[in-house]
Design a protein that fits this description.
3 helices, 131 residues, 5-stranded antiparallel β-sheet, 8 strands, Dna Ligase, domain 1, alpha+beta, 3-stranded antiparallel β-sheet, globular, 34% strand
Length: 131
């Protein structure tokens, strides 16, 4: 049985924001850190820090809430899964909910949002969408 560490990380983000937590802690990996940094760049997370020693490293992500204490991250839809990879070219990049949402892609230039990928003129694997 295989597990999906990215889906676990995204589930922790959604569950933490629904429970009104200030931050969540998840096991660290380079891919998770790149995803969290992309979410910080776009304002969906406040900050991300990597903590721990040697093998036991963790990411601490501070969550963002609106003025009425509503969670900014309310729903995340996993597009590319371990069982089915979804790739898109430059022509296939679309906006998510008229640019109110966000798509995260794994591209040759690193982890980028859909807007950054359009600007860089690259396509890649669509990891997930924040709705």
């Amino acid at each position: 049985m295989t597990t999906d560490p990215i889906a676990d990380f995204l589930t922790q983000l959604v569950n933490g924001s629904r429970a009104k937590r200030e931050s969540i802690t998840a096991p660290a990996s380079n891919l998770k850190q790149a995803i969290a940094e992309a979410l910080v760049r776009t304002g969906w997370l406040k900050s991300v820090t990597k903590r721990g020693k040697k093998v036991k490293k963790f990411l601490t992500c501070e969550l963002v809430y609106g003025a009425d204490s509503s969670a900014k991250i309310s729903k995340i839809k996993r597009i590319s899964k371990t069982s089915r990879r979804v790739y898109v070219g430059l022509d296939g990049l679309k906006s998510v909910r008229q640019d109110f949402g966000l798509a995260i892609l794994s591209t040759p230039k690193g982890i980028l949002t859909n807007k950054e990928a359009k600007k860089e003129k690259v396509g890649g694997e669509i990891l997930f969408e924040i709705i």
